[in-house]
Amino acid sequence: MLAAALLVCLGTMQYQAIDIKSDCDVTVDVWDVRGSYATQGTALCFLSRAQELTPKPPEGYSAEAVDAILAPFAEDPLTGTDGTVAESPSPDATGNQNSAAPTTGDAAPEQPEALPYDGPNVIAIMNETFSDLSEYPGLEGTNAAPTFFHEVADDSLAAGDVYVSAMGGGTCNSEFEFLTGASMGNMGGGVYPYVLYDLEGVDNLASYFRGLGYGTHAIHPAEAANWRRDRIYEQLGFDTFDDITTMEDADTFRDLVTDRATYERVLEKIDEGEGPQFVFDVTIQNHGGYDTGLVPAADAVHLESDEVENPEVDEFLAAIRRSDEDLRWLVEELNARDEPTIVVFFGDHQPGFADWLFEETFGKPVEEADLEEVQARYRTPYFIWANAAARGKYGDALARIENADVTSLNYLSSLLLDATGLPRDSRALYRSALRQALPAVNLNGYRDAEGTWHWFGETVETDAQQKAEDALKSYAIVQYDQLFKDRSNR
Question: Residue 383: which of 333, 358, 420, 354 has the closest Cα?
Answer without folding.
Answer: 420
